[in-house]
Amino acid sequence: MVELPDGSWWDWDVVSCDAGELRLGAGHDLTYSHGLELVFSDPLCVQCPTSFQDPVFRAPRRDEVEALALRLGEMPQVLVEAEAEAEAEAEAEAEAEAGGTESVTCLVAAGGVDVVQGTVFRYWRGELEPGERHAPWVRPPGAR
Question: Are 15 and 34 in contact (CB under 8 A)?
Fold first, then answer.
């Protein structure tokens, strides 16, 4: 199970994802920045919405581990599961409660995971302090 440092990690989203790495960002409000990332190396299976809130991480149940190992043909080195809230799907939205969210199970099987703290800006800032960086999609004004 993943251990998060103390902090306000309510909002979560997928910062980047490719064959070699999945990066989830977390913070109390993702509008301008996030302060925590879970960086999964060599993701084998990813089942989570692109954004979700207030995850409760838990150890996977034995039947979930066995089913995933059977599906993948191998036991993943890292298996992280969480119960979270996400925006309701269009067809389920009418059935969702007033908040427009539904409970989802997030699952990531990967080769490894690192917990990285530091401010990651989601907009261009000229001068960055040590430990600060830009999100991968942020470019200087006028850059393509």
Answer: yes
Tell me if 144 is assigned to some domain.
no
Residue range 120-140, pLDDT digits in tens: 999 999 899 999 999 999 999
Q: For the segment 45-93, what is each residue's pLDDT rounded down to a tens digit?
A: 999 999 999 999 999 999 989 999 999 999 999 999 999 999 886 555 4
Euclidean distance between CA atoms 80 and 103, whole angstroms: 17
Tell me whether residue 2 is in a domain.
no
Sign of CA dihedral 2, 89, 44, 34: negative
What sign for the dihedral angle of Cα 144, 14, 86, 89?
positive
Give pTM, 2 decimals. 0.88
Domain that residue 95 falls in? 11-134
- Residue 6 belongs to a domain: no
- Report whether 76 contacts 42 (CB < 8 A): no
Q: How many folded domains does the chain comprise?
A: 1
